[in-house]
Amino acid sequence: MKIAIADMMDLARGATFLGTGGGGDPYSGRLFAEQMIHRHGAPEMVSVADVPDDAACYIIAMMGAPTVIVEKLMNGKDAELAISKLESITGRNADYIIPAEIGGVNSTLPIAFAAQRGLPVIDADGMGRAFPEVQMTTFNVYGVPICPIVIANDHMESTVIETPVAKSAEDIGRAVAMRMGLAVMFTGYPMTGADVKRASVPGTISLAIGIGRAIAMGRHEGDPVEALLSYLKSTDYFKHCGVLFDGKVVDLLRETTRGFSIGRCIMEALDGSSRRMEVIFQNEHLVARDDKGVRAIVPDLIAMVDRETAEPITTEALRYGQRLKVVGVSAAPQMRTPQALACFGPQAFGLKEKFTPIEKLL
């Protein structure tokens, strides 16, 4: 199928939900993708199974802090610079584009770039959600080298990173991104089609569109949060889900530091019980705790949505007094293996709690 302008609102909204608070500003990303589709035509979306094993598959993403990315518009030239330089290094032109993560701007940017280049986009990503660091992907977990990496900014400056250690690539890349404005284009993980089949999370663009459509239908029928949960429960990845908390924001700490948007959000229940929930975030939500302890923790998904409309709220859009529901959702199975948890489980973020699947906490 082709991804048309008519699909972009649902895709952006669904990807923002899966982005668990991060992934960059969905609004500007959607507008940019719509502009590229209008100018160049709708890109074809293909399933993982239909990608030839020897195809050259490249990612394109924004790297930085959501609080900065929301203030910067895109023009596509920096993305073209990054991919073109990676192509010159590998000696292979891109045959397919694949999202690094299905969250916010990083779900819509690959579609915009695919339209700009006239390339198909693969219905998959490397997380099934969003994460703050570039080594936190199933690509890395299942053996795809992260380098060479190319980082480019809107001043058409670029840097190439080569290191055999994925975490070192993140640390070096984060320092470069901070120096280049903290809203840069990133490409790495050059893959073959065989790599994509082995190391990706399939079907996530379609799932994002389905989530967005479920929310829209729920608004029409009167209960968007329930419609969202019903759709999630019909999927293979996200079938374990539920509302963890219903309340209003009573305290918010958010700062841009170390190249991330880091902080916590405190919510108080609306039922007069004085119960509270704390959500800790590093670009994305990492752990949700209430008076009884942990209610959900990475790599499972923690999303905040408007309690009336189910509109997903990113960390940079959190405001005092907002009335929100916190929704917990199971991660894809390949995100929960021992090797995956070693890469992006709770201890990777310095959390003291061990991972407990959300189906045991609901």
Quickly describe the structure.
The chain has helices spanning 5-18, 26-40, 66-69, 77-90, 105-117, 138-141, 166-179, 193-199, 204-221, 224-233, 338-344; strands spanning 45-46, 56-58, 61-64, 96-97, 121-122, 124-125, 149-152, 158-161, 183-187, 191-192, 201-202, 241-257, 260-269, 276-282, 284-290, 293-297, 301-306, 323-329. By secondary structure, it is α+β, with helices and mostly antiparallel strands. It folds into two domains: 5-202, CV3147-like domain (CV3147-like fold, 3-Layer(aba) Sandwich), CATH 3.40.1610.10; 238-360, Beta Barrel (CV3147-like), CATH 2.40.390.
Describe this structure in words.
By secondary structure, the protein is α+β, with helices and mostly antiparallel strands. It has helices at 5-18, 26-40, 66-69, 77-90, 105-117, 138-141, 166-179, 193-199, 204-221, 224-233, 338-344; strands spanning 45-46, 56-58, 61-64, 96-97, 121-122, 124-125, 149-152, 158-161, 183-187, 191-192, 201-202, 241-257, 260-269, 276-282, 284-290, 293-297, 301-306, 323-329. The chain has two domains: 5-202, CV3147-like fold, CATH 3.40.1610; 238-360, CV3147-like (Beta Barrel), CATH 2.40.390.10. The protein contains eleven helices and 18 strands. A seven-stranded antiparallel sheet has the order 16-15-14-13-12-18-17. Strands 3-9-7-8 form a four-stranded antiparallel sheet, with helices on both faces. A hairpin with a 2-residue loop joins strand 12 (241-257) and strand 13 (260-269). Helix 1 (5-18) packs antiparallel against helix 2 (26-40), helix 1 (5-18) crosses helix 9 and helix 2 packs parallel to helix 5. It is globular and about 60 Å long. The relative contact order is 0.16. The mean pLDDT is 95.
